[in-house]
What we know:
Elements: H1 24-37, E1 41-43, E2 45-47, E3 50-52, E4 57-62, E5 65-74, H2 78-95, H3 100-115, H4 119-130, H5 134-161, E6 170-178, E7 182-186, H6 192-204, E8 209-212, H7 218-231, E9 238-240, H8 245-253, E10 258-264, H9 267-279, E11 289-293, E12 298-302, H10 308-320, E13 330-336, H11 340-352, H12 372-387, E14 391-395, E15 399-400, E16 406-407, E17 410-414, H13 420-423, E18 430-436, H14 441-450, E19 454-455, E20 457-461, H15 465-474, E21 481-484, E22 501-502, H16 513-517, E23 520-528
This protein binds nicotinamide-adenine-dinucleotide.
Amino acid sequence: MPKGFFHVPKAVNEPVKSYAPNSPEKAAVLAAYKKMWNETIDVPNYIGNEEIRTGNTRNMSAPHDHQHIVGTYHLAEKKHIEKAIASALEARKNWANMAWEQRAAIFLKAAELIAGPYRARINAATMIAQSKTIYQAEIDASCELIDFLRYNVEFMTQIYNDQPKSISDVWNRVEYRPLEGFVYAITPFNFTAIAANLPASAALMGNTVVWKPSDSQVFSAKIIIDVFKEAGVPDGVINVVFGDPVMITDTILAHPDFAGVHYTGSTFVFKEIWKKIGNNIHTYKTYPRIVGETGGKDFVLAHPSANVKQVVTGITRGAFEFQGQKCSAASRGYIPQSLWPAVKEQLITDVKSMKMGSPEDFGNFITAVIHEGSFDKLAKAIDQAKADSDAEIIVGGNYDKSKGYFIEPTVIVTTNPKYATMETELFGPVMTIYVYDDKKWAETLALVDGTSEYALTGAIFSQDRYAIEEATLALQNSAGNFYINDKPTGAVVGMQPFGGARASGTNDKAGSMQNLLRWVSPRTIKETFVTPEDYRYPFLGE
Length: 542
Ligand code: NAD
């Protein structure tokens, strides 16, 4: 038990390294990349203190060179999932009662391990098997993950500090207990930081976890596991299982001690999970917490007063970095007729200048999309746009999967504001633009708000304060992260808490105190110092 009101180190955001030519960080990450590229690793399931290899394996490969295998991982069976749950429940006995400063120390140590000795490896792993450029890997796998770990510790202490009023003879206290049971973390392929944060945030608050990473992120998940082990996360606190997501999920959601799910991924899958939890509700000992951050159809809206270069950069960076595979990536744009000729010219010039290829070549701005399923879906949407009379591809539109899953950054212009790619999340480097009549600004605001089921991120560009004010109000429910004169991507932990509503999620804001509150169940303790000894109140004296 703590014997002091300990202060944690003030959380600071990890500075983004430049990876400029001849920098030591560039040499270090390329050396790690080469080494990891030429090795093959074998990743078991991690359950309690055991590493479980089932022999039923899948290969891990590089999306930009899909025949190149960098390792294998083992698929768990139902009995292993049951074992992982049992292991989490067993570990909970000690972990839930451990003093908070011990938990804080573990995750603060994990942050510093990534900032230092693991930085090159976790970035290289993210470059190799998720095909991120070095800059995208650095802001995700290193900086965002470090920030999550540091800030969550600070947020935890802020939560613990939030205490009710007391009076002289009554002392009121609130204790932030971990949930009773275990937490299930299901993570997506696209952010190494999210993969680590979903299990770690629940564990930091005293919960034990079964974590199922995405099949397309196992390579960097292995580095996360190594970091957690070295930082001192005890066996059984975060159990890691790979394999059939439906079997794993069904097994977990059928367990009476299931206490919450921390999910990030596509909307349909989340809704299915929610439905299953509803169907099983009579099974559970406690109402499970359901936290999910899901899809997006994020917009860039330019007002006639906008600066053309800023709008174009908002689109090129917002839509095409990491091949548009960010939940926050811009994928629908609204440009006024008066600006369109200039925006179009600059956009075509900029997109044509983007180099595409392996992330090992630092000159490439675009690399491959994550897997064949994603490639085929994107190629089909591009072919459809080529065939449709209400759509025109003004730049890009080619694709090639012979070596890697390469899709050119593509801009579609449509005359139909409800065209399929204005509404459907494609999760790739495809941006669709609708050119609107300058006189129809108010109607366009309604259009932006009413198009697509999502409400994750959105950006408006304007030099006119009245227009900014009008858009901020009209679009108040259209995005959980709203940007003024900036691209809609790149939220920073501690600065822009992240999440959206409508079909984009439960909006519990990753990287904020609100998220951590979902992983505790407060207990109020009232202690009376002079306890009454007679039921008769004075008024009864009459
Ligand atoms: P995905 O839905 O394919 O997979 C997400 C996770 O769910 C993976 O671990 C996967 O194995 C698992 N899964 C798949 N089918 C399942 C099922 N039937 N039951 C249980 N689990 C299942 O998503 P993805 O391709 O990895 O990631 C991209 C999606 O994630 C996009 O829709 C993107 O918008 C979203 N995303 C949202 C945010 C956010 O903060 N809102 C952040 C990142 C990604």
